[in-house]
Design a protein that fits this description.
Alpha-Beta Plaits; alpha/beta; Rossmann fold; seven-stranded parallel beta sheet; 3 domains; elongated; 16 strands; five-stranded parallel beta sheet
Length: 389
């Protein structure tokens, strides 16, 4: 079977090479696609055909994808957490240095100088005092969110001689293992804002995090810290930030999300969403997205889905596989097993995983699946999708 993949943005050829032409048809104009590969294209207003089995985003955020609606259709949405982590980490470190040493206003001052070299030298000596900054060693960095990027930022800041305070009530075991033992845990956002000289945000933009950094949090800050936001614009309340900058409670705001209100403020450094804008990050994201889409279409494997549970089951030799997405309700596996037994099919291996309201089942059986059986399984109340692989 040839699997059809529609690309909605330019995807690095390094990633597309993982979808060989003998098994995949890939392109922007592919009809009736089984998979969608996307970067920034907005899918909310696009009608995805019934043929679509999975969507993979070459990036971490999925705000441009109707995740919940696709989940109701049994369609997993993949992202690429960590693939651009180094690129974002480096930009965060650059942002700290830009703010600490007042590099952007200093460069603008220098560009505006006029006269001969002697006059410029005199102006430099008279003007440089206004750009005096601070050094990072000994300062405290507060990291909100300890996922792939937050962990790298925290560990790198320790290498720069900073104290690091982390806050993430939902940190995973895997990320905790990657985090240096020297990172101190903050018990609350209030503690972090009250102790940090530099604050950086690394959480996804969801309803629970929209406006996470607002008037209350900024009111808990120690005097004149630096705030960094290379996560998503809506996580920080721009109006509250501008008010804190204007009255001197906040020293500098460095972000990757310029707005009309922010871009001309003298205490704001707003970059044009450069977080993942490196060749390496684009290749890493494309490779991870293509691998996840390939493995799902070929073997039913789910890794790094934002709506379905991770599920990987080694193939039992000489068996056939069913991949089933369903509502997380009682007796689903029992109903499926009963139909398989009625068709005289022995289960060689089975994996059932759940995540919230959704569940996913992989079943390897001895013998082929009659088309009628696959249809009957798909008709079970609560089954969202079923594929015979």
């Amino acid at each position: 079977m040839t699997h059809r993949i529609r690309t909605l943005n330019a995807i690095s050829p390094i990633g597309l090479h993982l979808l060989p032409p003998e098994s995949f048809e890939v392109g922007q104009d592919v009809a009736d696609p089984h998979g969608i590969l996307v970067r920034s294209a907005d899918l909310h207003d696009q009608a995805l055909p019934d043929s679509v089995l999975a969507v993979a985003r070459a990036g971490a955020g999925t705000n441009n994808i109707p995740v919940a609606a696709l989940g109701k259709r049994g369609i997993p949405v993949f992202n690429t957490p960590g693939a651009n982590a180094n690129a974002v980490k480096e930009l965060v470190l650059a942002g700290m240095l830009l703010a600490a040493r007042n590099i952007v206003p200093a460069a603008a001052f220098t560009k505006g100088l006029s006269g001969d070299d002697a006059e410029i030298d005199e102006a430099v000596e008279q003007g440089k005092k206004q750009f005096a900054g601070f050094e990072l060693p000994g300062r405290t960095l507060g990291v909100i969110g300890l996922g792939a990027i937050g962990v790298q930022v925290a560990n790198a800041a320790l290498g720069l001689g900073m104290r690091v305070l982390g806050y993430d009530p939902q940190i995973t075991v895997g990320r905790a293992w990657q985090l240096s033992a020297s990172v101190e845990q903050a018990s609350s956002l209030a503690e972090l804002f009250g102790r940090a000289d530099v604050i950086t945000v690394h959480v996804p933009l969801v309803e629970a995090t929209r406006g996470l950094v607002g008037p209350e949090e900024l009111g808990q800050m120690k005097p004149a810290p630096v705030l960094l936001n290379f996560a998503r614009g809506g996580i920080v309340d721009d109006g509250a930030v501008i008010a804190a900058l204007d009255d001197g409670r906040l020293r500098t705001y460095v972000c990757d999300f310029p707005t009309v209100a922010l871009k001309d403020h003298p205490k704001v450094v707003a970059l044009p969403h450069l977080g993942a804008s490196t060749g390496e990050a684009e290749e890493n994201c494309a490779v991870m997205a293509a691998e996840q889409l390939r493995d799902f279409l070929l073997d039913g494997t789910i890794r790094n889905s934002v709506n379905f549970p991770d599920a990987a089951l080694p193939r039992v030799p000489s068996t056939n596989r069913l991949a089933i997405g369903n509502h997380n309700v009682p007796n689903m596996v029992g109903q499926i097993s009963t139909l398989l037994a009625g068709a005289g099919l022995n289960i060689a291996d089975l994996l059932n995983k759940s995540r919230g309201e959704l569940a996913y089942t992989l079943i390897d059986v001895d013998g082929p699946f009659p088309d009628e059986l696959v249809t009957r399984i798909g008709q079970i109340d609560g089954v969202l999708s079923v594929r015979a692989l």
